[in-house]
Amino acid sequence: MTDTSLAPLVPLHNGAAIPQIGFGTWPLNDQEAADAVAAALSIGYRLIDTAENYRNERGVGEGIRRSGIDRSEVFITTKFNKEWHSRQGAVEAWRNSADKLGVDYIDLLLVHWPNPSQGTFGDAFQGLAELLADGRVRAIGASNFKIHHLQPLLDAGVHPDVNQIQLDPRHTREAVRDFHRTHNIVTESWSPLGNASELLRDPLITTLAGQYERTPAQIVLRWHVQQGLVAIPKSIAPERMAENFAVFDFALTEDEVQQVSALNIGEHDIADSDEFGH
Predict the structure, then answer these.
(1) Does residue 107 form part of some domain?
(2) Fewer Cβ atoms within 10 A, N terminus or C terminus of the chain?
(3) Which residue in 45, 54, 105, 212 is the catalytic one?
(4) Tens place of pLDDT for every residue, the chain, 278 residues?
(5) Does 105 qualify as catalytic in the annotation?
(6) Does any domain span residue 98?
(7) Taking the CB of residue 157, how many other CB atoms lie within 10 A of it?
(8) pTM score > 0.90 for this model?
(9) What is the number of domains present in the chain?
(10) Is residue 3 part of a domain?
(11) CATH of the domain at 99
């Protein structure tokens, strides 16, 4: 029986399945992350997103243990930095994160930024493939990768399950999403609410919120969900966490989805992953 209190699952190429709404933990410290993750899991979240660079993996692990939710029911995502961009480095990054999280496997491990000038993210993915093969991770993926970063991986026979990119109605990222669809890579949206001070006050978003008796954030997150995107909003306020999760009992019309998509302003203000990365 499907638990209707939980987010729907999106199947991944390598056999796992990821909840469609998750909880983001940047920029929380360990103590804040432990409290917030425990609260999020009590609400119904089962996808928790962290990273080496967030410096809160210990807190995330503590929050999961504190929640009382069985480890097998929680989908943990973490990411590693460019210093681990080698075959063995990816294994070391896995070990470091698993130790901090206090787990013996990680559900989804991502290369956080491609850092193409370093030229070794492909080697890191070879390490990820080894971790996937022996069960130390259940899925592998990229974060902030462009099409020309993803294609060499596919050409080498390594298939990312996920590419986590900055994506919201003002940055719809259609070209890379089309590539993902073609190659069975799930698109995961970080910063799914965008610049909230602007997006959540947009007249279209506030009008739809009034029409559906929802918050503006719920309208935006529903826009993600209806397009098959995985979204990872973040908030430390339990009432906001609950609102962000409560987006599975209503639906926008297709025309409304297209209207929201028309808020797109392009990618000029998004960090260029050919130039930026850690």
Answers:
(1) yes
(2) N
(3) 54
(4) 234 589 999 999 999 999 999 999 999 999 999 999 999 999 999 999 999 999 999 999 999 999 999 999 999 999 999 999 999 999 999 999 999 999 999 999 999 999 999 999 999 999 999 999 999 999 999 999 999 999 999 999 999 999 999 999 999 999 999 999 999 999 999 999 998 789 999 999 999 999 999 999 999 999 999 999 999 999 999 999 999 999 999 999 999 999 999 999 999 999 999 999 99
(5) no
(6) yes
(7) 9
(8) yes
(9) 1
(10) no
(11) 3.20.20.100
Our measurement of the distance from residue 164's CA atom to the centroid of its chain's CA atoms, rounded to an integer in Å, reads 5
Specify if 266 maps to a domain: no
